[in-house]
Amino acid sequence: MRRRRLGSELRRLREAAGVTSEQAAERIGGDKSKISRQENGRQGVTKLEIEALLDLYEVSDAKLRTALATLAREGRRKSWWAPYSDILDERFQEHLSIESDAVRMLLFQPLLIPGLLQTREYAEVSIRGETDSTSDGQVDSHVSVRLGRQRVLQRENPPQLVCILDEAAIRRCIGGPKVMAGQLHKLIEVNNPPRLSIQVVPFSQGSHAGLDGAFSIYSYPDPMDLDVVSLGYLDGLLYLEEDGPVERYKLAFDQLRSSALPSRQSMDLITQVARDLEKPEDGYTG
Questions:
Q1: How far apart are CA 110 and CA 205, in angstroms?
Q2: Which domains does the chain have, with CATH numbers?
């Protein structure tokens, strides 16, 4: 949040000075995307960088310069995931920052339960399938990070979370019937609209707005902050901030909510799938 406040002020000062993002980037030896990340609070600003930018923006107010320098210093404090930085690439650490600062998260997942809602057992099985990690220690570290992300939902003022799943995500038997049933029971346990709402798009819906894949939309308290769309791909994450693409994904999410079962009916479906998984005499048939 300190980085976001700093970024908003730096953007205001840059625009007031008539300086382009390209000119600001050239002053600190970076590129336009770096200025964008700094102004949106997703990347810290070093002492030398902020001094150079404030000089470029002709900011002479000593109190303002000191206040912004303090925000920059505090914004570089280590985050909870810092002990795992050796196993997390920069893009995913950026994702953790985006996620932890949001006040509203809209998630769509067609195949897997989102990390924010996973049980330890489900997380371990899915991580073993996702990573090249071969040692139990590496897997344990990744599991700890995934479960650590869930603290955002347990804080005093948690963000609103709306999660839409394709029915495939609750029927794909990750880790075997016992692990999957436990995961489904967790979804039932945490579902608490409107603060945390889970809905399922049933197979009977046929075609829907999420057939192109998973995506997430993050919103922030400062009206100057841009909403962010996160898209996952095999080698990492892609972020969209431009109004046009973000609005299209918001529309797609609204359409998915219309296609999904209401929360109560979604819980009924999840309960039935969990019961099927727990039938010892028949096993699970999908």
A1: 13
A2: 2-75 (1.10.260.40), 82-277 (3.30.870)
